[in-house]
Each structure stands twice: as structure tokens, then as C-alpha cells.
Amino acid sequence: MVCDENLSKFLANKNLNTLYMDFLGQKILILNSYSSKTKKANFSVFGFEDDTIFKLENAQFKPFSLNDFLSTIRAILEDCKNENAYFERILERKENILLKGNLIKNFFKKSFILKQKINKNLKNLSLLDEALNLSAGTSPHKKALKPIIFAVGVTLKNNKEIITRLNEIHLLMSAIKNEKMNQSLYFLSILSAIFLPLNLIVGFFGMNTNDLFLSNVKHATWYVFALICFILLSGLIVYRKKRKKELEFEDKILNK
Fold it and tell me: Pfam families, alphabetically (predicted)?
């Protein structure tokens, strides 16, 4: 195989992703990955001619063994698996925090950043899966590639499950925040309902007018005070009864 000027110009594009293509009659596989261990991007180009595999090194295609080729793909897959394991550990910690009844500080910002990283890994896996399937379709090494393609598919599925878990945590956090806000508004509404008649009573008897109701009655102040206490206690009792009726989810299950 020859790396001509056209192919060199094409490969000079820094935005190339993992792909398999037929470039001017030459079967080319580009593997663009990121190693979490070395913190570096790995860019490899392979060519296929009959049953021979070539790797592009110093602008020349050199023969490359099948085992080394498979090892290169396994290394990329292993990096993707490590990324998935890292994401799963993060999600597990967040789930444990929520199960303990605590909230996560700056969750929505952190989850957005985490989702970007997960989607990036998902994109790399999807491109790798597509490229390997296309390559295996025309390659005499299809049998050797089949286990790796299967492993890539499993890792890809795992990545999608991680995104689903993150979305569920996101929905749960939104629900918890909404519930807390609703509880606060509900409590404020109860307070308003209790103190509204009290304010009316205080305002009514605070008027500086003649012939005020109960103005000449002995112990009238205590009567009004008793009425205020009665209204206050009635409101609190109603609130307490409603609170008791609101069973938690696990209580409903246990009472069945």
C-alpha cells in the first residue's frame, strides 16, 4: 500500500474521527481515541490489502500483524471501559447521597459536565462499533474481529445505561427540589389561612371608633383572646391531620 499525496492531505485533517472507508480504492481504518491513563490522544491509521494489514508510520504503510492490530483495538476498548467504570462510580456515590436524604450541591451543573463526558465516550464507542462492523464485512479477519465487535457492543450498551441512570438521577433531583418548594408554599399557605382571620380580628378591634363591639363587656379581651387561640389551634389541628394522611411511599407498601 502507498500513502499518496491525496491520502496525506486527507489525514492531515485534525478533526478526523474513527472511521472505516474506501479511499480511492484503498481500504482505510482510522482509529482516533483518547487514553485516560496517558492523558493523550492516539491517532492510528491502518490499511488493508487482501489478508495483509498495514499501519501508517512516518507517511509509509508498513506490515502490521493481526495480533498487534487486535491489541490496539483492545487497548482503545479498555480505555472506554475504564471511563464507563469511572462514570458508574460517580453515579453510585450520587445515588447513595440521595438515598440518605441529602441533596447534591451544584448538581445540575455537575451533571451537565458529566453528561458531556459520557456522551463523548458514547460517540467514540459508536464510531468504533460502526467502523469495525464495516471493516469486518469486507475483511478476511472477520472471525478474529467478531469477539471484539461483540465486546464493543456490550460496552456501548453499558454506556447508554449510564446515561439513563444519570437522567433518572436528574429527574429525581428535580422532583425533590419541586417537592420541597411545594411543601414550603403549602406551609406558607396554611400560615396565611390561619393568620388571616386573626389579622382581621386584631384589625377590627384595633379601630378607634365609638360603640365598638364588646367594648363595654367585662372580660371582653379574654373572649377575643380565646377566639384567637381557638382559630389558631383549629388551623394547626387541620394541618396536622392532613400531614398524617400523607403517607410516604415505603409506608404504603408496608401497609398493604
Answer: CorA
24 and 133 both lie in a single domain: yes
Quick check: is 80 in a domain? yes
Smallest Cα–Cα separation from 74: which of 149, 160, 159, 158? 149
Cα separation of 130 and 156, whole Å? 11
Tell me the pLDDT of the chain (256 aa) as tens digits: 787 888 888 888 767 889 998 888 889 999 988 777 777 788 889 999 888 999 988 888 899 999 999 999 999 999 999 999 999 999 999 888 888 878 788 888 888 999 999 999 999 999 999 999 998 888 888 889 999 999 999 999 999 999 999 999 989 888 888 888 888 888 788 778 777 777 777 777 777 666 666 667 777 778 777 877 887 788 778 777 766 665 554 555 445 5
Please calculate the CA angle 4-7-9 and round it to the nearest 5 degrees.
Answer: 105
Q: Are residues 159 and 225 in the same domain?
A: no
Q: Which residue has the cell 460502526?
A: 130
Q: Is residue 157 part of a domain?
A: yes
Quote the domain boundaries for residue 32: 5-179
Q: Provide the 3-class DSSP secondary structure of residue 211.
A: coil
The owner of cell 468504533 is 128
* The model's pTM: 0.73
Residue found by looking up cell 446515561 in the block = 163
